[in-house]
Write a structure and sequence with these properties.
The chain is of the alpha/beta class. It is built from 14 helices and eight strands.
Length: 312
């Protein structure tokens, strides 16, 4: 059953009326409700504030990495384990074909339903998850396979065990190693990009974001608690953090915004998967025109320009 947020309530009502009209085969009513639905979608999603976009990024029906694997990849084969501790279900690594392009797809997976959320640790990888991602990237480099990374995590897991096994080192190692990996690397924020948990698979030749995704150094809840010690200021913190794709593109922290369907990826998964696939293939074609030295040089230039400024 579909989940609707409070600002989607009018859309939910029209959708229910439309489904009733379809069931009763009332063609006139169907046409009328479809027109009403289109108008309401334009009205509602055409004027979202930053906090509403954050809620959409966290929407329980929003497609996760595994959904995109199933929608985009052929002959997908999952790679397990970091060869040091265990397999981390919060980090997915698949090798397969995307429209004839052999691809290594790496993504963070949140999970649906209580049992699956616990299994996936709510999308918060442990160190072994990041080490598994690094192992998959090194494997891809060995066989000259491009990498597509899908970011969707509240952040790296902050538990005692994760810290004991070197959480910060695992993230830092990925940042270091990915800068010099000699294959095209493309990263896309599909939902929530939280802090170092997102950065660990965000070092790439291109970093893009879906229309209703967010990317932040800290969660708005954490920011609200630290700055104001007041959980009611989450909306204010969301606006202050500048975590939406529009703000991040303006500050040149990302390269592209992917225009998922206006109504959101949670309502149209197939179209969203098609948009990601087309962006990946188009970007890969551009990157393949570069020599290895040019690829690495441009990646380095892109990364060191992040946060740079000049004084007049």
């Amino acid at each position: 059953m579909a989940t609707y947020l409070d600002f989607e309530s009018r859309i939910e009502t029209i959708q229910q009326d439309l489904e009733s009209a379809i069931a009763s085969r009332d063609e006139f009513a169907v046409k009328s409700f479809k027109a009403d639905l289109d108008k309401e979608v334009q009205k509602t999603f055409g004027s979202l504030n930053d906090y509403q976009k954050l809620r959409l990024a966290r929407h329980p029906d929003r497609p996760y990495s595994l959904d995109y694997v199933r929608l985009m990849m052929d002959n997908a084969y999952e790679i397990h384990g970091d060869r040091a501790f265990r397999d981390d279900p919060a980090m997915l690594c698949y090798i397969g074909w995307i429209d004839g392009e052999k691809t290594m797809l790496i993504g963070e997976q949140k999970g649906r339903g209580t049992k699956n959320k616990i299994k996936r640790n709510f999308g918060m990888p442990n160190p072994e998850g990041y080490r598994k991602a690094l192992r998959a990237v090194k494997l891809a480099e060995k066989f000259d396979i491009p990498v597509l990374m899908l970011i969707d995590t509240p952040g790296a897991y902050p538990g005692l065990g994760a810290e004991e096994r070197g959480q910060s080192e695992a993230i830092a190692r990925n940042l270091f190693e990915f800068t010099s990996t000699k294959i095209p690397m493309i990263s896309i924020v599909i939902g929530e990009g939280g802090s170092g948990g997102a950065l660990a698979i965000g070092v790439a030749d291109r970093l893009a974001m879906m229309r209703y995704s967010v990317f932040s150094v800290i969660s708005p809840e954490g920011c609200s608690a630290i700055l104001w010690n007041d959980p009611t200021k989450v909306e204010q913190a969301t606006k202050a953090l500048k975590i939406t794709p529009t703000d991040l593109l303006k500050h040149k922290l990302i390269d592209n915004i992917l225009d998922e369907p206006l109504i959101g990826a949670h309502r149209d998964r197939k179209s969203s998967a098609k948009i990601i696939k087309e962006y990946y293939l188009k970007t890969l074609k551009t990157l393949r025109k570069l020599s290895t030295d040019e690829l690495l040089e441009k990646r380095y230039t892109r990364l060191v320009s992040v946060g740079a400024f000049s004084e007049e």
